[in-house]
Amino acid sequence: MKLYRLVTLAIAAAPLIYVPVTAQTGTGKPAAGGTQTAKPAPAGAAAAKGAVRTIDIVGTDQMKYDLTEIPAKRGEQLRIRLTSKGTMPKIAMAHNWVLLKLGTSQVKFITAGAQSRQTDFIPEEMKGQVIAKTALAGAGETVEVTFKAPGAAGKYPYVCTFPGHFQAGMRGTLNVN
Ligand SMILES: [Cu+2]
């Protein structure tokens, strides 16, 4: 019976750990506090008409993304899928993924939005700086956004706007080439 239950559990858990082939970006589990770099899309994959490349990111109670660098092709269709893992209630711990235009003052953006819970901590006066954003995900939730990568090469910053998280290092770079 015990074995049977284990197998049942494994099957039940399978969809949770399923990752599409195109999203197998990491190199296994990140080292504690370490960072990972997504592998570039396979040659030609992004060229297929309408193809969307999905990138899975995990946000944790340690206020970190498990991916801090995402290579992308200019104009590529990307789907960022962010899952929040942790135990804290959403009011105290939630994560989003907000891609900003080149040249945006990230500190200014984060500071200006810190009081704006009603806009997911995105400052109204600087929302024009946002290229793409997800909603906030509490523990166990997954949010996503599909967008076209910028047409100009550059290192575009992405941040979590939940108060304190940017300062704790919850940020990364979309490296468009
Ligand atoms: Cu966060």
The 3D shape can be described as globular
Number of strands: 10
**Biggest sheet: strands side by side, in what order?**
2-10-9-5-6
Q: On the 0-100 scale, what is the average pLDDT?
A: 83
**Largest sheet, if any?**
5 strands, mixed
Cofactors and ligands present? copper (II) ion
| Structural domain count | 1
Order of helices and strands: HEEEEEHEEEEE
How many helical stretches? 2
**How much strand content do the residues show?**
25-35%
Low-pLDDT segments:
1-34
CATH class category label = Mainly Beta
CATH superfamily: Cupredoxins -  blue copper proteins
Query: What is the structural class?
Result: alpha+beta
Helix content: 10-25%
For this structure, the CATH topology is Immunoglobulin-like
Question: N- to C-terminal separation?
Answer: 54 Å
